[in-house]
Amino acid sequence: MGGLFAGVLPVFALIAIGYGLRKSDFLPDATWRPIEKLSINLLYPGFLVPSIWGADLSGGSAGAAAASAVVAVIIVGTCALLAKPLIRLEGPAYTSVFQGVIRWNSFVFLPVIQAVFGAEGLALAAVMIACIIPVTNIACVAVLARWGADQRGVSPLALTKAMLANPILVACLTGLVLNFLRVPPIPGVSETLELLGGAALPLGLIVAGAGLSFAEVARRKWTVAAVTFVKLGVMPPLMWGLCILFGGDQLAQGTALLCGAAPGAAAAYLLARQMGGDAPLMAGIVALTTVGSALSIPILLTLFHLV
């Protein structure tokens, strides 16, 4: 058990290092956006493609884990929509609440999975990402189109193009195709992808830390705290329970639990800024859920290994 926590601790240490580098002006603010772009568009695909390509997906674990993630997002998203009349927030702020309870940060999720469950867990995690990205993107864009400040409609074609341009989704789908076609490792290509992937996780965590902003946490503490409770207190046991219901083995259950426990996604802040959401509130939600996950994940892992 101590070894598991020792593996998780460096994940949050790198996030803290990224936050410290940004606050200390070690690098100019303008530098961080290109680094983030490099991580998302090149390094993470280099990590994900070989992880899925060489994975053993012949069992039922991948299906149970993916189904639990998708169904949990649908349940929580539906509850958030039904609660809209009771949530005394203006439309743009509500969109950030909605994004905050269903979206999660793969930059944090994947390194934690690697530390706890190794390569087999990473393969399941990548399949979950491929299944859940379309669901969360469609739901969040629809909510922003309805209640965002811009309130501009988004055509199904435009949404499809946006999702297919998502490098994380493309990498997951590429890995799945190569896996299902049983394509053998290609000399030179596989090694190049592995080298790129080796840089993805540490740099991604540093970038995630550099993007944290706590300015709105104190000003709108109750809203941010409520979203954090749902994201870190409700979503993890819900995904875990659904995975058990769908017949997932212990690996699938643990991966589903940690998927639910991942903090809010920095991509949600970018989407809020682009489509008229409440971007400062979204930044506060991402920040508090990230800090909260550093406390909740060890507790959830303890419970998981006691059950």
Automatic annotation (TrEMBL):
Its main location: membrane. Signal peptide: none annotated. The chain crosses the membrane at residues 62-83, 95-117, 123-144, 164-183, 195-215, 222-248, 254-272, 284-306. It is found in: Cell membrane. It is a multi-pass membrane protein. Gene3D superfamilies: 1.20.1530.20. The keyword NAD does not apply. Keywords: Cell membrane, Membrane, Transmembrane, Transmembrane helix, Transport. Belongs to the auxin efflux carrier (TC 2.A.69) family. This is AEC family transporter. It comes from Brevundimonas kwangchunensis.
